Amino acid sequence: MAQDSKPGTMRVSGWRQYRALLLKDLRQEVRTREMLTSMVVYALLVLTIYGAALAQVGDRVEVVSFAGGLLWALIIFTSLLGLNRSFSHETESGCLEGILLAPVDRAVVFLAKATSNLIFLASVELITVPLFFLFFLSGAELASTTPMMLLPLVVGTIGVAGVGTLLSTMTIDTRGRDVLLAILFIPVVFPLLYACVSATSVALMGVEGTFGTFWTSLALAGAYDVIMIAAAWGLYEFVVDA
């Protein structure tokens, strides 16, 4: 009986650890609003730069053809800012050392931090994606398939949060961590970015005969998420204890 009850106890303990760590991050952000505020302001600044760069584009239909790339560039650069700040509270207050000294499974720490990063990034996207459409695509004739872009947005955001959590942990104690994270993050996430841009562009343009490309790109993005997040989960113990 003792052996049968032990696995169940460990599962409950793991869930409680995950919930406690996740709630800690969410409460900290609700109290300070530092991460979300900086990400939203940065995204608005990028949109302003986009507006200046595209001010001379007269035909908005042309914008639709590369809107997917613009949108994902906005998401990637905004997520970099958030990932750089995701461990700032833990390092400044010494909270991370306390977490690592506690009997907490490192995989649980990864899942909790990746989930909080996912929630924060998704919250920013809920604000910036509608603004992107309002500023740059409000006068364009969008295809009926445009709502399907939500699929690559969801899959891509999950991958960015998972991989970014691992890489931000690797650079947490390095000098120039902002630059180092970008150097590591962009090449690693490039396959996911390429697939998501392709799927998003197809959804926005709605060209007949290209939806094979949409589903292929979405499948590649999903496979990337599964492989890379599983690898990040398995490697996190070695990274965080290094």
Automatic annotation (TrEMBL):
<keyword id="KW-1133">Transmembrane helix</keyword>
<keyword id="KW-0812">Transmembrane</keyword>
<keyword id="KW-0201">Cytochrome c-type biogenesis</keyword>
<comment type="similarity">
    <text>Belongs to the CcmB/CycW/HelB family.</text>
</comment>
<feature type="transmembrane region" description="Helical">
    <location>
        <begin position="149"/>
        <end position="167"/>
    </location>
</feature>
<feature type="transmembrane region" description="Helical">
    <location>
        <begin position="179"/>
        <end position="207"/>
    </location>
</feature>
<protein>
    <submittedName>
        <fullName>Heme exporter protein CcmB</fullName>
    </submittedName>
</protein>
<feature type="transmembrane region" description="Helical">
    <location>
        <begin position="118"/>
        <end position="137"/>
    </location>
</feature>
<feature type="transmembrane region" description="Helical">
    <location>
        <begin position="63"/>
        <end position="83"/>
    </location>
</feature>
<keyword id="KW-0813">Transport</keyword>
<dbReference type="InterPro" id="IPR003544">
    <property type="entry name" value="Cyt_c_biogenesis_CcmB"/>
</dbReference>
<dbReference type="Pfam" id="PF03379">
    <property type="entry name" value="CcmB"/>
</dbReference>
<keyword id="KW-0472">Membrane</keyword>
<feature type="transmembrane region" description="Helical">
    <location>
        <begin position="36"/>
        <end position="57"/>
    </location>
</feature>
<feature type="transmembrane region" description="Helical">
    <location>
        <begin position="213"/>
        <end position="236"/>
    </location>
</feature>
